[in-house]
Amino acid sequence: MVPFHLKTWIAVQIISVSLASIDDKIRSLTSTVTRENFRLEGHLIESVIVDSQITCSHYCVKNTRCLSINYKKFQTDLKGRCELNFAGLSNDLDNKYLIPTKEFVFSQIRCRKEDETRCPNMDRISSDFSLEFPVRNGNGVVYNKNMDRVLTKFTLCLWMKTQSQGTVFSYAWQNRMNEIIIMNSPELQLYVGGQHTPRAVISVRDGEWHHVCATWRNTDGQNKIFIDGKLEENGTGLQAGHIIEKGGVVVLGQEQDSLGGGFQDNQALVGKIANLNLWDTILPLKEIVEMSKNCFSRKGNVLSWEQFRSDIRGTVKVHEPSLCRAP
């Protein structure tokens, strides 16, 4: 006869294994939003031909019924098939409709409200907002203190809309106030370590949405500025050998004359910003061009747009969904 305490121990182990199995299912569900070589079947809203997977995701975001997509890139050209689905992983823990299918990529875009507790991490949805800086003063700023990597090269991309000069992005560290700056003064310029690119005729002050990317590397000081996917500035010698330290303060909408402060009204931005991201590498031209085609892109591995919701001050307005509109 099995002793009572042994029966109890066996029962506890069985329950623990069962709970672990359930937990593994939930963890596998919530740890990813993309499955390569898989396709969700039986839940199609519509199928369209698009120029990229990002564009396919954008179609889903705009369709309130769409929860996920299947995307297949054609072998003969740059386009692909985009299938919008009215269901996703959160609707079925067993994933019985997620079928292995070569050349397809399944991506979860959003979840139904009733499924939010077991919904995959929806980076694209949490980034669907824009910030407006309505008046030229030192009160409307956005802070971010998540710069946790030393940079010897970077790519900084964002969408912006303005008709005036002002500071878009400012990063300061200790007593170095101009480590990274994107500024309209009145032409668009990149500052690194207190030095700036030549005053080229690059203007985005026409009141329209523009995609802006700036890249820099310290090996030779190479710097580039892309406007709407086109290379507009290309130089070398900008702070070669410089290192951008981590742990500083990022401010949107103002230039820092002291760490996290020292704002002046004439340096303030009047306009709108959306989907700003920072990477610790130089992104390929192909990715920059693709990101310039719509207002949604993959998030940066140093700074990502959703982080800028946590410390918004003064007169800055949040618009959700985003007001950004690609040309």
CATH topology of the largest domain: Jelly Rolls
Q: How are the strands of the biggest sheet laid out side by side?
A: 15-14-13-8-17-6-19
**Low-pLDDT segments:** 6-32, 120-125
Helix content range of the residues, please?
Answer: 10-25%
CATH architectural designation of the largest domain: Sandwich
> Count the helices. How many?
4
The secondary structure category is alpha+beta
Query: Over all CA atoms, what is the radius of gyration?
Result: 23 Å
Can you count the beta strands?
Answer: 19
N-to-C series of helices and strands? HEEHEEEHEEEEEEEEEEEEHEE
Shape: globular
Counting copies of identical and different chains, the oligomeric state is single chain
Count of spatially separate domains: 2
What is the first-to-last residue Cα distance? 78 Å
Report strand %. Answer: 35-45%
